[in-house]
Amino acid sequence: MKTEDIALFHRIVETGSILEAANLLNLPKSTVSRRLQSLEESLNLKLFHRQSRAITLTSAGSHFYEKTLVMLADLDRTLSDITDNKAELTGHLRILIFPIPQIMDIVSKIFAFMDENPNCSIEIITSTEPLDMVRNNIDIAFMVNETFSELDMVAKPVISEDMCFFASPEYLTKAGMPVTLSDIEQHNSILFRFPNGKTFSEVPLANDAMQAVKGNLCTNSIQLAYEATKLGRGIGYLPQKLCHDDVEQGELVRLFNDLAPYTGVVFLVYPSRRFLSLTGQRLLDYMLAQLPVQTSEKTTTTNTKVWI
Questions:
Q1: Distance between CA 236 and CA 220 in Å, rounded?
Q2: Quick one: pLDDT band at residue 297, thresholds 50, 70, 90?
Q3: Global pTM?
Q4: Taking burial as the number of CB atoms within 10 A of a residue's CB, which of 39, 54, 267, 287 is the most buried?
Q5: Which residue has the higher pLDDT, 282 or 148?
Q6: How far apart are CA 195 and CA 67, in angstroms?
Q7: What is the DSSP secondary structure assignment for residue 192, as one 8-state letter?
Q8: CA-to-CA distance for 60 and 81, rounded, in angstroms?
Q9: What is the pLDDT averaged over residues 220-248?
Q10: At the topology level of CATH, where does 160-264 sit?
């Protein structure tokens, strides 16, 4: 019995399909089926009920899955402890990144990790849509709170960004300068829609306050909201660092300078119940050491109000 075949069995369970597991692992379906059969023969157990279009765990398969989750996690922790960071890292990691303005800061650190560990390969997926990390074989992710699709996540804050209101001089010439914060309700704002379907008709401010906004353009892209704001389509609620040079060059105007910025947070996330490979754990440690904002880990809850 090989630990690689047990890990393969986990991927089949988590995707619910031999074909999906094969696609995620970039293996022929026949290879996955053969390795699963070999595992069942070595255990002398039937792990799945096989039907024409679906497979379901047997009671023995369910028990084996739960027990081996802990076993593989313990094995990887032991390897990590005894190798003392000297083991050669191999394998393939899948990383999901919400397309934030600082995406290249994250990617450059991933590239540096790859340079230090040339025998591992990494797949980077950018998406504003929520993805089930376990089902899609995602090892770690960089996400804002509203994009978490699972409850059993460990999340560590790694990037913070101050959010402010901005508008182009052309828009302000046409629509006028909002003097008080409540004036923004009479202006056209660029609205942002998160993957959970929620459109921010209210945006969060500092000290847990909320401000109503309205507009005729909605997007799920921070970059597109930024470009639309520069083109005078309305007032944008955008990361301050993203707009810094435009403000310096007179292409954007920050509104309400006396209003304290709202701080949005990006989390480094991984599933709490699924074991993380030695390579995945080393990448996790590397990214936490390289990225500035760190606090103790937490399991995400639906009550956390974070927006960026």
A1: 13
A2: very low
A3: 0.69
A4: 267
A5: 282
A6: 34
A7: E
A8: 31
A9: 94
A10: D-Maltodextrin-Binding Protein; domain 2 (3.40.190)
Angle at 229 between CA 228 and CA 231, to 5 degrees: 65
CATH architecture of 3-83: Orthogonal Bundle (1.10)
CA distance 89 to 280: 9
- Tell me the C-alpha distance between 224 and 218, whole Å: 10
**H-state helical runs in the chain:** 3-15, 18-25, 29-43, 59-83, 103-116, 169-175, 222-230, 240-248, 278-290
Over residues 214-218, mean pLDDT: 94
Question: Which tens digit of pLDDT belongs to each residue from 145-201?
Answer: 655 655 667 888 888 889 999 999 999 999 999 999 999 999 999 998 765 556 668
The whole-number pLDDT of residue 3 equals 83
Residues of the chain within CATH 3.40.190.10 domain(s) are 91-159+265-299
Pinpoint the residues of the chain covered by CATH 3.40.190.290.
160-264
CATH of domain 91-159+265-299: 3.40.190.10
Residue 226 and residue 238 in contact, taking contact as beta carbons nearer than 8 Å = yes
Place of tokens 């507009």: 215
Statement: residue 265 has pLDDT above 50: yes
C-alpha 35/C-alpha 9 separation (Å) is 9
- H/E run at residue 299: strand 298-299
**Which of 224, 226, 18 is closest to 128 using CA atoms?**
224
Structure token digits, residue 279:
């390579």
Q: Which two tokens stand for residue 176?
A: 């006028």
Q: If DSSP codes are grouped into helix, strand and coil, which group holds residue 170?
A: helix
> Per the structure block, which two tokens stand in for 293?
């904002």
Tell me the pLDDT band of 19, cut-offs 50, 70 and 90: confident
Structure confidence at residue 188 (pLDDT): 97
The whole-angstrom separation of Cα 236 and Cα 221 is 12
| Domain span(s) for CATH 1.10.10.10 in the chain | 3-83
Beta bridge partners of 167: 253
